[in-house]
């Protein structure tokens, strides 16, 4: 059984109970090709754990421009929002994901699930984490200054890094989509910030100096 130690939905669940948790949530594995939409039935509340590959959460603006809302890597999890059908999950590369039916844990026949309480608490935690990420993204959208957008995003990534450097999860074009700005404008602003001694940029690595 795969080690799910750092995955929210398995918090406070022993490794020997992972199989029980997956069974309680009617878990099953699905594989998708690169650029294939996940097309998950949203009639019930479901979550996914990326076992291999990368998944993007995307939508399109009124002009048809693709917007990148979030990117999920191996061992990250997310909830399919049944209330928002304007966004889609798409495989960036060939992916293997574990689909979990979160609603299943609330069914009467699952009352005897020995770790039911832990799973229910973790579902709430996972939803809260995703809501927090959404709030941060909305905050970025509302920020008019591109420089402030960039700094807010870098500051968000900074606590996750222990080396003093930030490894960006996006290529420059994807970062522009995530920040909802033009790629050339993003490159110009990063160059200005570097020239002013605020940051150091080396491809996908950034070091914050004075921001």
Side-by-side strand order of the widest sheet: 1-7-2-5
CATH superfamily membership of the largest domain: Jelly Rolls
- What's the mean pLDDT score? 87
CATH class designation of the largest domain: Mainly Beta
Which structural category do the helix and sheet elements fall into?
Answer: alpha+beta
Shape: elongated
CATH topology of the largest domain, by name, is Jelly Rolls
Q: Note the total helix count.
A: 5
Outline the low-pLDDT stretches.
Answer: none
- Total tally of structural domains: 2
Note the gap between the termini.
Answer: 44 Å
CATH architecture of the largest domain: Sandwich
Main beta-sheet strand count, sense and barrel state: 4 strands, antiparallel
Radius of gyration, CA atoms, in whole angstroms: 19 Å
Tell me the helix content.
25-40%
- Strand-residue proportion: 15-25%
The run of helices and strands is: HEEEEEEEHHEHHEE
How many β strands by DSSP?
A: 10
